[in-house]
Design a protein that fits this description.
The chain is α+β, with helices and mostly antiparallel strands and about 800 residues long. It contains 25 helices and 15 strands. Helix 7 links the parallel strand 6 and strand 7. One of its GO terms (molecular function) is acid phosphatase activity.
Length: about 800
């Protein structure tokens, strides 16, 4: 038989003929051959149908068998079966035939082709668990952001990344006010428990339409425009960010923190007694992946069989203490006031940038919101793509303003100035107290999910607890736990940044921020308590003079000046400056006692705002006092009223609770503060520091007129706090009078006389000429000037309280 494999019109057609014996090869034969007649079209179709019918039957039979097998396999797997066990039982010839007919659909993407457990692992002895937090002589400060490129500004020594607020990468904070202490366990103490609270790592922007993605849409819809100069990159710029998910850098943050946690606290695993630790997180993708990446660093891969991960639903209508705003309908009602406060500050710090950048846009009018989004793009692109061209558009002063913008937002949205803050932080505080006392919760009146509070999902007798949450929770816990050193300046002014500002969001809520509550057992020696406001006459907002400060810009005196001689807070923001130093601890023998302390981003936090917690250079508080205060704070927090009640959401609050709780208590405190201030001996003519720093937040929180608050600050020798208030009312006689007095108390005779001249006349100072003579008398330290100044301050406070009776 022969067949033709090329068209007939080819001159050299090759034909093959099958030999008479099977052993003969197929040989080409050239020349004339007898040609068989071609079949007719009709007969060809009949032959084709006859040949196709058997194959069709076979194919349908095989497909039917496969469908039955697949349905059975799906049902089997859905009910917990292992398909690999079935595959192993299929005879090899059948598997070979199936592969030859249907092929390997997985191919190179099938993990089965790449087994990892093939033996030959070599020796695998395990070492002892690390305990760096106990054994280290010193701790390095973490500031790594590799492989991100650190952006630069107009000032070389300025670290922009530290001024992105809650979008800053995590770093070790040098001090929250306890400069001589660190996260290391103090001498003569042993660590019993660690309660670790962890924010997710760096992420893409949220899906909020007013976020940075909106800038891209507005530019697309803005018609024909052209950018030049510093904005010329916008001509080819594309928005490349995702939404909500962790960035690769964010994943690395959590992995590295897991490694660090294992090196510091790994020895606690030896005390688990064959139990597995329970980590808790939420269903939101970045929360789940943060927990898994942290666990990969902490336990190593694979993590299976080394811990339990409890995943709680994060969605409106479901309770979880790690995203409590979903349980609090009033949470959304605070945001109109928040946006108004933030917008007021944006007009101040972005005025120059708005005008400057508009010059580079032809055919498109930049809004202030566009400029804010450009600033947002800098941190978001940097943590996602490693670099952003938006960063260099702004000066270091404007980045300081951006940081303060975030501080204002968090103050009013979720912290001391938010009436729902303590209610939303209540659930986690209840859980912390239950774990500290090893007592299961029995009352569920907050965001706690009672369904998951049992011995399995919420153990209370472990040495190690790890929870994963959002930046919002960290902001809420500051007022919830009464960590008042962060509120020592009072509410944020909206026209300038105070000279020393303690509520810095990049320090308490950056990407991957973390907090540890350490439970310690200390023997042989312990700190001798220092008595103060936090005992008798305790005040729930009380603070200490241990405050971390930030030298900032946008003081009205130099907001329009290009001169900036202050040092960058990369070094100075953790230096407490004029802070009154801690008295040296005196130690005395004592029985073993248990203490609590809080570590926030590697630095201990002063706990003197917590009732019963003594001033201590290591931040220690006896656990009985700590727990007792927690119970008091829990009892003072009305979740139902704060989250479901009707009240004034715009009212100024200082303790994270609705004004209906705070107002009577705050107004009653004014008389007590006045009595305390003027019950002391006359202060020096030129004080070097506030007389009682614990009074600062109490005075700032009073629902009084700002001039009353300013006068009380001045009577407390707090020159800066008084100046921050009165400078906003320049030209008003009472403000000018206090301006003159505070400069005199600074020792600045020239400026004091200037403000007395500008004041002209005042009810308390009808003769400015005599006031100027008194300035000279104070400079000479004439006899009797100290007592006369004290009488002057007393009269000032009395007069403003009578004259200015409403806030």
């Amino acid at each position: 038989m022969s067949y033709r494999d090329k068209p007939e019109d080819l001159a050299a057609a090759e034909e093959y003929e099958l030999g008479t014996r099977d052993s003969e090869p197929l040989l080409p034969r050239y020349g004339d051959q007898e040609r068989l007649p071609s079949p007719s079209p009709a007969s060809a179709k009949r032959q084709h149908r006859r040949r196709r019918f058997p194959f069709l039957c076979i194919g349908l039979s095989v497909a039917l068998v496969l469908l039955c097998f697949m349905g059975s396999a799906v049902y089997y797997k859905k009910n917990g079966g292992d398909l690999s066990a079935i595959e192993d039982k299929i005879p090899a010839p059948v598997k070979s035939w199936a592969d030859s007919v249907f092929g390997d659909k997985g191919g190179a993407n099938d993990d089965k082709n790449f087994p990892t457990d093939i033996g030959y692992a070599g020796p695998t002895p395990t070492g002892a668990e690390a305990a760096l937090v106990v054994t280290a002589p010193a701790f390095p400060l973490y500031s790594g952001v590799s492989p991100l490129i650190r952006p630069t500004t107009d000032r070389e020594d300025f670290d922009m990344m530290r001024h992105w607020g809650n979008l800053s990468p995590y770093r070790s904070v040098k001090s929250h006010g306890l400069k001589e202490s660190s996260q290391a366990i103090p001498d003569h103490c042993e660590l019993e428990e660690i309660h670790w609270l962890q924010r997710h790592g760096a992420r893409y922007p949220t899906t909020n339409p007013s976020g940075p993605a909106g800038l891209s849409e507005r530019l697309k819809q803005g018609g024909k425009w052209n950018a030049s100069g510093a904005l010329s990159f916008l001509n080819d710029w594309e928005y490349k960010l995702g939404a909500e998910l962790l960035t690769p850098f964010g994943r690395s943050q959590l992995y590295n923190l897991g490694v660090a946690a294992r090196v510091k606290y790994g020895f606690l695993l030896d005390r688990m007694k064959d139990r597995l630790p329970v980590f808790r997180t939420e269903t939101q993708d970045r929360m789940l992946r943060s927990a898994q990446n942290f666990a990969a660093g902490f336990f190593g891969i694979p993590t299976e069989g080394q811990y339990h991960l409890e995943v709680m639903i994060e969605w409106p209508g479901f309770n979880t203490t790690l995203a409590p705003y979903h349980s609090c309908p009033n949470d959304l009602k605070v945001y109109p006031n928040v946006r108004a406060k933030v917008a007021e500050w944006e007009k101040v710090f972005l005025r120059k940038a708005h005008k400057r950048l508009q010059k580079y846009m032809d055919g498109y009018e930049l809004s202030l919101h566009d400029v804010v989004n450009m600033m947002d793009m800098c941190p978001y692109e940097t943590v996602a793509l490693g670099h952003s061209s938006f960063c260099s558009l702004f000066t270091h002063k404007e980045w300081r303003g951006y940081q303060y913008r975030n501080d204002i937002f968090w103050w009013y949205a979720a912290s001391f100035g938010a009436p729902v803050a303590r209610a939303e932080g209540l659930g986690w505080m209840q859980e912390l107290t239950a774990r500290l006392t090893h007592t299961p919760l029995t009352q569920f009146n907050s965001s706690v999910n009672s369904t998951l509070h049992n011995d399995i999902h919420f153990p209370v007798n472990e040495p190690l607890y790890v929870d994963f949450t959002h930046d919002t929770t960290f902001a809420q816990l500051l007022p919830t736990l009464n960590l008042t050193t962060f509120a020592s300046q009072g509410p944020p002014p909206l026209d300038h940044i105070p000279k020393k500002w303690s509520f810095v969001s990049s320090k308490f809520a950056p990407f991957a921020t973390n907090l540890q509550v350490q439970v310690l057992s200390c023997s042989a020696q312990r700190p001798t308590p220092v008595e103060g406001m936090n005992q008798e006459g305790w005040w729930p907002f009380s603070s200490t003079d241990e405050e971390e400060t930030v030298e900032t810009e946008f003081d009205k005196r130099d907001a329009d000046s290009d001169d900036d001689s202050s040092s960058d807070d990369e070094d100075s923001d953790d230096d407490d400056g004029d802070e009154t130093p801690e008295p040296a601890d005196t130690r005395e023998p004592a029985d073993k006692r248990r203490y609590v302390r809080i570590i926030l981003n590697d630095a201990p936090v002063p706990l003197t705002g917590i009732r019963g917690c003594k001033k201590d250079s290591d931040g220690l508080c006896e656990i009985e006092a700590f727990v007792s205060s927690m119970h008091t704070l829990i009892g003072e927090t009305d979740f139902a009223q704060a989250c479901h009640g009707d009240y004034d959401f715009n009212a100024e609050v200082m303790d994270g609770r609705p004004l209906l709780h705070a107002a009577p208590r705050l107004r009653a405190m004014a008389d007590e503060i006045v009595a305390k201030l003027f019950g002391r001996d006359p202060p020096p003519l030129e004080p070097k520091a506030p007389w009682d720093a614990a009074l600062k937040p109490q005075i700032a929180a009073l629902p009084e007129h700002r001039f009353v608050v300013a006068a009380l600050h001045l009577a407390n020798d707090d020159i800066y706090a008084c100046h921050d208030i009165v400078q906003a009312d320049e030209g008003e006689p009472t403000a000018d009078l206090m301006h003159a007095l505070l400069h005199r108390r600074e020792g600045d005779a020239f400026n004091s006389k200037y403000w007395f001249s500008r004041m002209r006349r005042h009810a308390l100072c009808p003769q400015p000429v005599e006031a100027k003579k008194f300035v000279d008398a104070c400079s000479r330290r004439d006899e009797g000037v100290v007592d006369k100044q004290w009488d002057e301050l007393r009269e000032l406070v009395s007069w403003v309280r009578v004259t200015f009776t409403s806030p």
